[in-house]
Each structure stands twice: as structure tokens, then as C-alpha cells.
Amino acid sequence: MAVVLLKLVFSTLSALSNMITRLIFTTAAHVVVQMIQALKIPCKNSQRVLDQVKDMMRTCLEYLLDLIIKAITTVLSSLFDLVKEGVLNSSYGLVAAVTGLVVMSKTSLDDAVKDVPEVLEAFTDMVGKIVADLWNNCNDALAYVKDNVLK
């Protein structure tokens, strides 16, 4: 059950990350194109405009990296909470009976060992999807800039 919930969380994080990066890169691409179009007319303010664009892009990248770090922290925290919950459940079983704990721990450990590869696979899939979406969104934004800069 926990694996299904983690997979749901991973897919939600991937989709959310894709939407956010697409929004950021698309917005940045449109702004860059508009700035370049505006720079074609006057050249005096070009350095100031380029500095503003650079600052905006730096801010967007910092925000994006912060978002990715928070997502990874949330996932690791969820995994830690899952492990902590399993340990607490095992310790409550100790209060009930030592014999029941041995059987319960063995069953829990077997189930946890069975679930670890599936959780790790889902996590690596999520990270791979996030990186692939980030790369694709960046390429789409750069293609938009390249196509529209000469208009």
C-alpha cells in the first residue's frame, strides 16, 4: 500500500515539476524574445536590459533549483517517515509480546525488503522524468527564442 502511495506522490511531483519548468522556461523565452525585439531599436539601454534579463534568468534558475531540492527533501523525508513508522509499529509489538514481535518483525522486514527495489525504481523513474522534462522544456524554450528572434 505504501509503495502505491509513494508512486502516486512521485508521479504527482513529476507532473508538477514539468508544469512549473514549462511555465518558467516558456515565460523566460517570451521575455527574452521581447527584450531582443526591443533592443533592435535603441542600443543605449541594451546593457541595462541585458542585466535585467540576466538577473531574471538567474532568479528563475535559483527558484527552480530550490524547488527541485525541496521536492527531493520531501521525498526523502517521506521515506524516512515511512521507515520511522515501521520502527514504531515494531516497537509497539514489543510491548504486546516478544514472540509476536519476532514474527511481526520478520514479516515486516520481508515486506520492506520486497518493497525497497520497487520504491527505488519509482524514485529513479521520477528523477529521470524530472530531468528529461527539464531538458525538453529548456530545449523548447531555446527553440522558441531561436525561431522568433529574427522576426
Question: What this model shows, in words?
Answer:
It is a single chain. The mean pLDDT is 75. Helix 1 (2-39) runs antiparallel to helix 2 and helix 2 packs antiparallel against helix 3. The chain is 93% helix and 0% strand. With 151 residues, the chain is mainly α. The chain has three helices and no strands.
Question: Quick summary of this structure?
Answer:
By secondary structure, the protein is mainly α. The protein is built from three helices and no strands. Helix 1 runs antiparallel to helix 2 and helix 2 (46-96) runs antiparallel to helix 3 (98-148).
Can you give keywords for this protein?
single chain; 151 residues; mainly alpha; 3 helices; 93% helix
Number of strands: 0
Q: How confident is the prediction overall: mean pLDDT?
A: 75
What letter string, H or E per element, gives the SSE order?
HHH
Radius of gyration: 24 Å
Structural class: mainly alpha
Helix/strand layout:
Layout: H1 2-39, H2 46-96, H3 98-148
